């Protein structure tokens, strides 16, 4: 869910001030211990390679460094040795051959502060407790049967989404007047995951309040604190206000979750006539246990927080990027649209059970994820022991960044890698599981995303309905060739500007 993010100007100035006060040369941690370390760019005393990361998108900068130093290279970010993986063969070695070694998580300061001391699944260190939590998520919360159980939620909310677009289209003054598609998609995904996670049992809370604080948490998870790289400079996080910001957000989040939790405990198991939601499932496990493993209330809050954070950001950005790429490539749009309409016309609309017949739709989604993985650097990993990788010595507690963005654009794995060509996925068995190391938008191995099926089902249903019910154009007669797909900043970038499209109802 989080990766290294650029330091803001205040932190950078603080760091430079501290560096100027040091008169000793700090030896690179572990470098002397590695007799055969991976190649590495030249590092400076104290700050290591931080100066080489620049201020732009980190996944792009790391791709450029990989082109000079190879698909496996070592950085020192402060006192932290960081291994960068940028090719499919190297990713396969890390995520499959040695997944048992590269399976833990660095305990990031902002994650500890907002995710209940990393007691969630995504950031929890590897061990027995993490295995139990993941089992609960996979078996009880995100199984195929449970994903299917939210069919009605998806159907109702996507239908409402279609009607909102229809109303905006009919109210447009001009045919080429634009509609904020990004805003509509965000509202849809937030509503679906809110209903799946909490139902309507919000204890008087407004859904907007929940979404706003979740956005704050997501933003903080994209920040790497000074203390993450220089543990002895913990006071800098306090001096720059990061500590106060983390505590303020955590307190607000905990208050909201306690209110919702109390409402669920008051109305147990959907006794108000509503079907049980994911929080109801967790409360049942809290009461009865699961194969001898007992959850407590903090575990429940951390787990449901993971479900909400991952369930909103990833689907909305996948839909947004897929639509943007189809607008940029109108011939591909025509192919997807023709297929969807041919399949759906038999029922007079899109039905979930027909999504499996829409091979071009699936191919377009996969191609969008290849070019724009939700978290370009995946969630950082950490080695649990010393190991050797492709002849290099890797020390325990090394941070590992897997550049899924660079792997998806590697000409060694993909022909014309930077072009949007959905047909490349037709007739293949490449799926979202991560078993094909050249395509890992949701990670792979034991730390791969357990909620992939939940998210992709919503993406498929939403895009199919957008293709079936409407014709789409760029507003004000804009030419697709002049339409730029610019990334926003952050650990999970979407489009830099909202996707504004002209829409025509059929």
3D architecture notes:
There is one protein chain. By secondary structure, the protein is an alpha+beta fold. It has a single domain, classed as Cytochrome P450 (Cytochrome p450). Helices cover 48% and strands 7% of the residues. The chain has 18 helices and 9 strands. The chain has a 4-stranded mixed sheet. It has a 3-stranded antiparallel sheet with strand order 3-9-8. Strands 5-6 form a two-stranded antiparallel ribbon. A hairpin with a 2-residue loop joins β5 and β6. It is globular. It starts with 8 loop residues before the first helix and ends with a strand. The N terminus is likely disordered.
Shape: globular
Number of separate helices = 18
Number of domains: 1
- What's the alpha carbon Rg, rounded to whole Å? 23 Å
Overall number of strands: 9
Amino- and carboxy-terminal Cα gap: 39 Å
Using the coordinates shown, work out and report the CATH topology: Cytochrome p450
**CATH A-level architecture:** Orthogonal Bundle
Parts with pLDDT < 50 across at least 5 consecutive residues: 1-34
Helix content: 40-55%
What structural class do helix, strand and pairing data support?
alpha+beta
Strand content: 5-15%
The biggest sheet, with number of strands, parallel, antiparallel or mixed sense and barrel status, is: 4 strands, mixed
What would CATH call the class? Mainly Alpha
Give the SSE string. Answer: HHEEHHHHHEHHHHHHHHHEEEEHHEE
The side-by-side strand order for the widest beta sheet comes to 1-2-7-4
CATH superfamily: Cytochrome P450
Mean pLDDT: 89
